[in-house]
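Thread: "does anyone have the structure for this chain?"

Original post by V.I.:
We have the sequence but no experimental structure in hand. Need at least a predicted one for the grant figures.
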Amino acid sequence: MDPADFKVLLDICDSCRWIKSEYEALVRLWNDCSDDDARELIVDLIKRFKVLTSFEMTDITKSISRHVQDTWSLSAKNTLFFAVSDDYESDGSQAFLQQLKNDFSPAAGWQEKNFRNSLKGYEAAFGNGKNYILFDDFFGTGRTMERQANKFIEYVAASGFQDNKIYLLAIAGMNSAKARLDELGLAYHSEVWLDRGISDIYDEDVVDSKRKLMKSLEKILGSRYNGQFLPSMGYGVFRSTFFNSQLQLP
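Reply from O.Q.:
Generated one for you, tokens below.
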């Protein structure tokens, strides 16, 4: 390997600890690049990539707990969490629930009944003066949360109970999803907010060329990971540079 290339890769590993375990894959990708423009894009994206490790997730769930109880001033006596899953099969929102509830102290009244693994069976939780928190691991395009929130708003309205509030919560989210979430008129919170990997980083006059370059790079990358299909430019084409090492389910 050229000494200059080796120095670039070494600098990447020094600044992005998470990639050290994938160094061989990084070298292969680097060698497969056809020109310096492709390599420059790879460096830019990797350095901006947000990877949440188990250590960071511990801090994040504690911070979320403080936000719910201190900033939103919600208590165990009338607050219920709902994973936005439509069923009981494992997904990111349910995995998040399992870790999150450990940071809500039983001494403050929080119990298993405050945390529900699915939107199924929501009717049994309805009552007057309730706070409902719909949560997911990630606000991507915002469409999933928008769809689930709108359905839940209808359910609450049809229940006939009064003085209820709905909140939205996530570990991380795209800044581009905020406009869609704002339209719901509900309080929402994400611990991490992310820019799109290309559109929000580069000047407008080079965005198209960077997208085309990324498309060409995709051709030399695998189309599946752990048996899952990898959509072009990310799910919903929201070009996220984000990975949660704990909740990224197979």
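V.I.: this helps a lot. The helical segments are 3-15, 23-32, 36-48, 54-71, 92-100, 143-159, 178-182, 204-218.
O.Q.: and The chain has two domains: 3-52+196-242, 54-194.
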